[in-house]
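Hi C.,

You asked whether I'd gotten around to modeling the 340-residue construct. I have! Everything is below, sequence then structure, no commentary in between.
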Amino acid sequence: MNDQKYFVPDSAFRPYSPTQAEAEPELPRALSFLEDSWRKLRKNKAAVVTLVLLLIITALAFLAPVLSPFDPNEQHLAYKNLPPKWPGVNINGLNGTTVFRGNRIDAYALAKVPEEQCFLLGTDEFGRDMLSRCLWGTRISLIIAFIAALLDLTIGISYGLFSAMKGGRTDTIMQRALEILSGIPSLVLVVLMLLVFEPGITSIILAMVISSWIPMARVVRAETLKLKQMEYVQAARALGASGIKIALSHVLPNISGIVIVRAMFSIPSAIFFETFLSFLGVGMRIPNASIGTLLNGGYKVFRLYPYQMFIPAVILCVIMLSFNLFADGLRDVFDPKMKE
């Protein structure tokens, strides 16, 4: 068989010119720090649920002046110790009835309360609306908690950063001062504040100013001491960067996750601190409402009117559990060793 040669003319060829998409395939957009954190947080269902719950509680508490049906300190002695009553609900415990000498009676009819008037969470021993007092009490407790977090983010971070960056004798002196302050019990500090100030939010905040930021300062110092030895910090120092610039530009951004988580854990601790002091009578002053004062009044009549203690106790448990679960979710988000 003879070999045949086939010739393809040049006109049959066409230069290949790939499109931009084929030449440079589009890569996924890089996520920012906040977007990546939110993506990880959404995978933790408990953290998302508690975040929504905390936003609702915070909104209700800070809208207390608008949402409260009554003045929290307004007394109606004729309506004292009324059980909760929800319109249209005929469930014992929520229909305004109570048990008296073995018989269930309508407490609202006995107190001659107008039919259109209802106390959704009942009233206390002075006839004050429990719903209004719970809203205002939660507001006070959250204000104190957020102030504690603010102190952590200002005094605690500044003190810890300065101590670690200076090092040497300065660091030693500052840490000895922290040990002295941390050795004074918080209850003693509040009692000392009462010698100058009246019981209330002022004395609680001043006591927290003295001692609440100490754990944050220690955490920040420990992390800063580790980062000081890193290569990029040493390079910045060799290039002539000042200590303040190194602390703010290189150290602080790398410990921001730990700082945020620590600040979130400090909020429930501050709420419990205020509740404990108010329950003992050295915190918020009666008749001002806070979760602690509500518990203080409710436990005295717990056997007769258990709702007066159960309601603020449930609010306290929900707030503290929500903050702890949310902070735990944030800790997983900011943990670089977390496996997705």
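If it helps when you're writing up: Residues 87 and 118 are 7 Å apart (CA to CA).

Thanks,
B.
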